[in-house]
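Hi V.,

Quick status before I head out on leave. The structure for the redesign project is tokenized and pasted below; the design run finished overnight.
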């Protein structure tokens, strides 16, 4: 018996390691979609943050005007039924828009006139970069006499702040009752 020496042509099974090209492509696509989604969510979050900041600013302006009206209680005592009421039909625009008006009743009352002018300045306020806090802001104050009970001489005050943001025109409205002290 003779033995044949190996020729070295035997096939050996080799272990394959690594990723195929298709696996790498799918992983890249999944990663890209994930990163784009995160970027889109970041943009939405920033825009909602700006909207919330503007709404907070408008709420503070409306609250401030209501507090100014409550503070001016002598004017609340001298007028009833919305006639001659110093804060009735005040329409305030920022300096970029037109149509703002001080009613004659407000100019007759020094405190109401000062409140009007300061509110006008607040509506036109800008941030450190010169951008308005509320673009094209408009503020309106209306008063209506409360009929029952008439002995309380209450006046319903409605303060509205409106501004524009792109295609939308958000509005903040607050209503309260004031009466003479």
């Amino acid at each position: 018996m003779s033995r044949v020496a190996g020729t070295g042509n035997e096939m050996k099974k080799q272990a394959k390691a690594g990723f195929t090209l298709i696996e790498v492509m799918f992983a890249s696509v999944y990663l890209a979609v994930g990163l784009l989604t995160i970027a889109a969510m970041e943009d939405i979050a920033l825009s909602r943050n700006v909207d919330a900041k503007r709404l907070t600013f408008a709420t503070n302006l409306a609250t401030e005007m209501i507090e100014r009206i409550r503070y001016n209680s002598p004017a609340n005592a001298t007028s009833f039924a919305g006639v001659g009421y110093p804060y009735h039909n005040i329409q305030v625009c920022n300096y970029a828009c037109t149509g703002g008006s001080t009613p004659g009743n407000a100019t007759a009352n020094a405190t109401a006139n000062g409140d009007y002018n300061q509110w006008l300045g607040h509506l036109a306020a800008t941030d450190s970069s010169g951008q308005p806090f509320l673009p094209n802001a408009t503020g309106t104050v209306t008063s209506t006499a409360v009929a029952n009970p008439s002995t309380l001489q209450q006046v319903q005050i409605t303060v509205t702040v409106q501004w524009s943001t792109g295609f939308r025109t958000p509005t903040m409205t607050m209503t309260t009752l004031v009466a003479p002290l």
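Above is the designed sequence. Residues 28-178 form one domain.

G. will cover questions while I'm gone.

Best,
W.
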